[in-house]
Please model this.
Amino acid sequence: MTAQLIDGKTIAQQVREEVAADVARRLASGKARPGLATVLVGDRVDSATYVASKQNACAELGMESFHNQLPGDTSQEEVEALVRNLNADPKVNGILVQLPLPSHLDEERVLQLINIEKDVDGFSPLNIGRLAQKGREPLFVPCTPFGCIYLLEKAGVTIEGANAVVLGRSNIVGMPAALLLIGKNATVTVCHSRTRDLPAVVRQADILIAAIGKMEFVRGDWIKPGAAVIDVGINDKPDPTKKRGYRLVGDVNFEEAVEVAGHITPVPGGVGPMTIAMLMKNTLRAAEIQAP
Ligand code: NDP
Model:
C-alpha cells in the first residue's frame, strides 16, 4: 500500500485564505483590525525566525502585529509588567510569548498572567485545564495539536472510536494532542521515554501522532496497515547534496511508513505550516470574542 499524503502546505494555505477573507469582512463592517502582540525575550535565532514568520503571516492576512523585543536579562517583573500592559491594550487581541523563555524566568507565571481571552497559543493553565475537563471548552486550542486534528479531519480520517497513540507528552504538543483526541472520542494511549515496547504499542494505532524530536525513530514495521500517521517532528538530517548540508525529516521513517500507512503527513509540508495557520485562526477568534 502507498499512503495518501496529507498536504499540510495546501490545507494551511486554505486556512489562511479563509482567515484573510474573514478579517476583510470584519474590516468592511467597520470593526477594528485584529492584532497580535509577540513577545521575544533574548536573541535565540530559531525563536526570532518563528516570531518573524508570525508577524509576516499577520501582515499577509490583514492583521496588525505588535512586536515586543526584550533583552535576554530582562527580569521577571519586567516581563510580567509587559504582559499586564498587553492585557489592558484594546488593540491587542492575542498575546504570544515565544517559548522557551530564558531559564531565569518563570514561564508558568508568565503564561498564567495572559488574559484567557487573549491566550491565542492556548498554553495558559486555564485553557489547558478546560481542554482536560469533560463538558468544558477551552477558548483556544494550542496551535500545533489543533493543526494535527485539523489535518486528520480534512483527510477524512475517522477519529471517534479509533485507537490513537500519541508519542510524546510535552505541554505544547503531545499532551494537548492526546486531550483533543479524547475529546473527539478516540481511545488514546500516550507514550513517553519510559514506555515499554514502543513498537508493540504503536502497532495498535489506527491514528499515530509522533512528537518526540527523534529523527526517523518510528519504523515502517511499527505501523498498522492503513493507519493515519501525523508526524510532528522536525529534525535536521545531514545531507551533503543540500546547499545547507542537511534536510528536514520527521520522527517517522517516511520512506518505510508511506508503504504501510493509509494516510501520512510529509516533513516538511505536513504539520509545520499548520501551526502558524492555526495561530492566525486563533487570533481572529480572539478578535471575535473581544469585539463580536
Ligand atoms: P519535547 O522534547 O518537549 O518532548 C518530547 C517528548 O517525547 C517527551 O514527552 C519525551 O518523553 C518523549 N520521548 C523522547 N524520547 C523518547 C523515546 N525514545 N521514546 C518515547 N518517547 C520519547 O518535544 P516537543 O513536544 O516540543 O516537540 C517534539 C517534536 O515536534 C520536535 O521534533 C519538535 O521540533 C517538533 N515540533 C514541531 C512543531 C511544528 O510546528 N511542526 C511545533 C512544536 C514541536 P518524557 O516526557 O518521558 O521525557
User: Anything to note?
Assistant: The radius of gyration is 19 Å. The mean pLDDT is 97. Residues 31-117 form a domain with the Rossmann fold fold (CATH 3.40.50.10860). The CA atoms of residues 24 and 30 lie 10 Å apart.
